[in-house]
């Protein structure tokens, strides 16, 4: 029997409908453009220089992070199940002349069966809260990283403050994101993600918060993990 695909058709359609806007820094994906330098710097701070490394970006969408890592000299594979954003990512990389970057429409669980322990770094940003079984994604990411390699996640905490700021504030008041981008019930508490990480035989190395100042309109990495947060994990060296 074929395994059930760990994806939500409505979520894929949601991002596919906005695919043509992915690389507009003033459009619906403006927050991704704004936080990208922060998360890229954080990845390099922990994992070291990306040049010459094999990197997998899970749930890459239109390729904002994947392309940035390729520009740093990494050999990057970006995967997603939404076809339109992948085509946008491929076209943008081609237009910009970015090398060392490939994209595939494949589930991370399927790729884990094909290319186990093939990557030095695996990133999975702003994706876990959009799939039916996030623990399965975490396990697949862990299977794909080499011994001594790093896995980076980012997602949203589940508490009243996160509901008010990430949904009411970001989607309805400040309009940083399109309405309906997130569903509160899919948010993930850090301790839940940490448990999945440990079950996947990874070690949690660092937890960072990502905050937004509406007055300065700037994001920052902080110790406040109550809304958006990032988690770095590592597989033990052989």
From TrEMBL:
Record keywords: Methyltransferase, S-adenosyl-L-methionine, Transferase, Ubiquinone, Ubiquinone biosynthesis
Q: What is its EC number?
A: 2.1.1.222, 2.1.1.64
Q: Which GO terms describe its molecular function?
A: 2-polyprenyl-6-hydroxyphenol methylase activity; 3-demethylubiquinol 3-O-methyltransferase activity; polyprenyldihydroxybenzoate methyltransferase activity
Identify the pathway.
Answer: Cofactor biosynthesis; ubiquinone biosynthesis
- What SUPFAM superfamilies does this protein map onto? S-adenosyl-L-methionine-dependent methyltransferases
Q: What does this protein do?
A: O-methyltransferase that catalyzes the 2 O-methylation steps in the ubiquinone biosynthetic pathway.
- What's the protein name? Ubiquinone biosynthesis O-methyltransferase
Q: Could you tell me which species this protein originates from?
A: Tepidimonas alkaliphilus
